Amino acid sequence: MTVPLEGKPHYILTATCDSRMGTVARVSGFLASHTCYITDMQQFDDVITGRFFTRISFYGNPGSTPELEALREQFEAVAKLEVMEWAIVEADKKPRVMIMVSKFDHCLVDLLYRNRTGELKMEISCVVSNHPDLRSLVEAQGIPYVHIPVTAETKAVQEDKLMALVEETQSELVVLARYMQVLSDDLCRRLRGQAINIHHSFLPGFKGAKPYHQAHARGVKLTGATAHYVTADLDEGPIIEQVVQRVDHTYTPEKLAAAGRDSECRALATAVRLHVERRVFLNDSKTVIFG
Amino acid sequence: MTVPLEGKPHYILTATCDSRMGTVARVSGFLASHTCYITDMQQFDDVITGRFFTRISFYGNPGSTPELEALREQFEAVAKLEVMEWAIVEADKKPRVMIMVSKFDHCLVDLLYRNRTGELKMEISCVVSNHPDLRSLVEAQGIPYVHIPVTAETKAVQEDKLMALVEETQSELVVLARYMQVLSDDLCRRLRGQAINIHHSFLPGFKGAKPYHQAHARGVKLTGATAHYVTADLDEGPIIEQVVQRVDHTYTPEKLAAAGRDSECRALATAVRLHVERRVFLNDSKTVIFG
Amino acid sequence: MTVPLEGKPHYILTATCDSRMGTVARVSGFLASHTCYITDMQQFDDVITGRFFTRISFYGNPGSTPELEALREQFEAVAKLEVMEWAIVEADKKPRVMIMVSKFDHCLVDLLYRNRTGELKMEISCVVSNHPDLRSLVEAQGIPYVHIPVTAETKAVQEDKLMALVEETQSELVVLARYMQVLSDDLCRRLRGQAINIHHSFLPGFKGAKPYHQAHARGVKLTGATAHYVTADLDEGPIIEQVVQRVDHTYTPEKLAAAGRDSECRALATAVRLHVERRVFLNDSKTVIFG
Amino acid sequence: MTVPLEGKPHYILTATCDSRMGTVARVSGFLASHTCYITDMQQFDDVITGRFFTRISFYGNPGSTPELEALREQFEAVAKLEVMEWAIVEADKKPRVMIMVSKFDHCLVDLLYRNRTGELKMEISCVVSNHPDLRSLVEAQGIPYVHIPVTAETKAVQEDKLMALVEETQSELVVLARYMQVLSDDLCRRLRGQAINIHHSFLPGFKGAKPYHQAHARGVKLTGATAHYVTADLDEGPIIEQVVQRVDHTYTPEKLAAAGRDSECRALATAVRLHVERRVFLNDSKTVIFG
């Protein structure tokens, strides 16, 4: 038997709260009492931090305008009881995403392509860069390109401009697609859980600059890339995705870097996909991911 | 906050039924109403077959002897309503498992070792073989070894003996760890969903005999192994796990076979672990696996 | 100690002949007697087919114009003795490559990008398609786009046109980047060892059409793609590269196909790179690859 | 055509020297002039360190007793000219290997098993442990077990005993299969390039103790193990093999450790196999590996 879902509005509920008895029953009971149909539900109870996480994909009922607002209002009562952080969103509404780059374009090209094919379901609000180089590439796809040059002197001012742009463009997520500027602690805090960076190493392997030279010097047999949320502590943000590939003694630093581009693209694209599909939760310095 | 679980009985509930509204709420509501605490819940709704699957790990309450029987009795009402196939078992009770082998011993050695380390949580009821060769290896570990030779003439009789042994030893699962005899259709039916085989190929790649010679002849660049439930249709049973590894032109059939032993051990061990942890569900000719 | 290679011409010698005593010594002796410096030498002796394969990267001496022609002439004596098929080419000369597509563009976009970054060292002579759809994408990069529509009636004529185009554009390699037309036996023969196809399955797994639907129906846990040389026997050409990725019961055929795009891009790009770097040798129905 | 190798003695020549013109020709010319037949030859020229490495598998001629000694004597002239470090060994002669353990037995069990199947071609001279626990496991396989307890006070004396045992048993290789004692700098130096350690982390990721707890705290999405040569600088020895596997937020440190056992077994077994097959060369702080 298949429950007919055709034409019904599709929602995602995400919630996190302290672990306690009956939360699953109360949340699923709420949805059942509103004749909502759950198609996918995942939950995780972290016995170490004592936190509970859940992501529920469900279908509501057509016609009851505006259903989403009503659902949110009524869920508030459950959420209050459980002291939850939560959200209910339309599953098909694409989050607005700002991409930041410098001069390397492989991650940008990859993200634009995956967005075009529909594999990534996001609306790119704009591409921001501290260099003018990639303007034509971006504008050719009908996406606004904003050049915000940064020097040591102008950094504070330019970061304010950046943050204003995030708000003005209603961007929910900022993707640092090989953006080669360190963000200030203050900006990192303001973008907590909202900005994803790609680190061109298999963290915690090689932090800092030139990881491919470090990997070569160490003679590793596997190398990779790490996508993580941005935090003030550089290279230490909560990890979302890691990708690895086999290398050998014939790899020069240049060849390691060339090979690394693939890992970077794949790790960043996966992390962005997981985030825009509301599958990633912050759990202290780590992430919970419902794949 | 952490809910104190110390000393509480730990159960696994598995259930499958037709997809319908409210099942998750009814099941989780049942557990909440019995002050049972859910630590892990996974569910899958197959929109194509219209079947619903769930696996719930939960903690009951100490002291209420015999709680398990009471829970089962009371859950029957919910299950009837939903026309469910279901089970509630003690999470720490190890299923009894019969292993069958011929002469190759790599999968057997691997399973025995992983069982000894506690990675596989099962009680090996006995090892059955159509050859006497591996007796000392098995008995040295204090496990009964039963030699059931098979010829074309004795096959039917010996299979009856085998089935009797499964029942007598209360074995819930039969693992064919490179058992080189084809089971009769009848035996396959009687062991449906209860017998796991390791196929030494990356199915559906190379069916039948000598898959490593086939792989060599075809010049594949990756090879692997497939663990699946036994069905009358040889090599077509529902797949539980597949493992793959890279090979190249220097691999002779012998070297492919040697390399393949690793894949076979890993695929079979994973499949057995998933099964004894009650993570695998039959879904027509396929499986649903809650990893 | 490092031998100074700066400014010296860099060559690749590839050769195959029947296995016999002393071939390595004769070839390397020839190079040493011409004060050529070997930086990389790989060889394989297939004990089953009795064929010998070698690929040597070496540096010649500057100034002796035209050294390449002289080397070739003088090597002919060695080659005759050994009844070799062989070639000596300039390592930095990019082979001319024709790409063929239909409507799917993911492999095309990936190849164009990797060529632009220099990861693939080839000169794209033109993109040929039986559809007009991808013209603007290709021409935007300054690459000629040739539309050759094909119907059952016009197939023979259009294939002649195609073959004429291969010769006219001096294309050494034809890459079928999801070209959805079956080539005639005759064309396959004419392009033997010169045309690479991407099959959207992990061959020999699912031949023919709709492999993602087949994979779904079979409930596989790993899926992948295969890049191979084109032969008259569809889906049976010598395999160059295979890529695999893990999937699970939640993958619909659509999601399998989406996931498969990544495997296809990676398998095809790797195969093309290996070929243009002269690392692939035909060995009957298989390949020898010096990675 | 296949060169008949049946009955001919099979040798491995390994050599390393400074990079210079003509080395390949001189070495292969030497073999050809002695009518030796090369079946596999690999070489690597490190343009950064200016070192040349080669491994040649070849067949000599039967009957000419003692051919090996004669070959070695005559090759000495070539080797002197090139200032080579070199060796010629019989391919089928199994190196004698000493295994050292403490209490964890998974790597030991795995090595013993792979040795028994012939996948690892070595002769285990003895197993040494600072604990008595694994005696019966080892002796049951007919292998001597030597208990050498170590305290801070007795360390120097016991290491002398150990080194004496290495010599007395003519062990060419020492495998630290989760031996939980730090070797003295002096012993590390004496065993340079002759002792392999398994580090239970994906180095350089998590050095020092409790890497699985570190991995858990950092929330990594991939974990692994590293097999490397022992050096005075702990965790910094030349890497031979690395193995990695995917993990997620549900992995506790215990589960990470359990999962890690597989990686450790596979990385160590591969490293030992590569070493005993004479495929690994030291290249400063790195290795060159002919796979």
Question: Which features does this protein show?
Answer:
Rossmann fold, 7-stranded mixed sheet, Alpha-Beta Plaits, 2 domains, alpha/beta, 291 residues, 8 helices, homotetramer, 4-stranded antiparallel sheet, globular
Mind explaining what this structure looks like?
- The structure is a homotetramer of 291-residue chains.
- Chain A has helices spanning 23-33, 67-82, 106-116, 135-139, 155-168, 185-190, 211-218, 253-276; strands at residues 10-18, 37-46, 51-59, 85-90, 96-101, 123-129, 145-147, 173-176, 195-199, 222-229, 239-246, 280-283, 286-289.
- By secondary structure, chain A is of the alpha/beta class.
- Chain A has 2 domains: 10-90, ACT domain (Alpha-Beta Plaits, 2-Layer Sandwich); 96-289, 3-Layer(aba) Sandwich (Rossmann fold).
- In chain A, strand 8, helix 6 and strand 9 form a beta-alpha-beta unit.
- Chain A is globular, with a radius of gyration of 21 Å.
- The model of chain A has no long low-confidence stretch (mean pLDDT 92).
Q: Which structural class do the helices and strands of chain A define?
A: alpha/beta
Helix coverage percent of chain A: 25-40%
DSSP helical segment count of chain A: 8
How many structurally independent domains of chain A? 2
Strand order, main sheet of chain A: write it out: 7-6-5-8-9-10-11
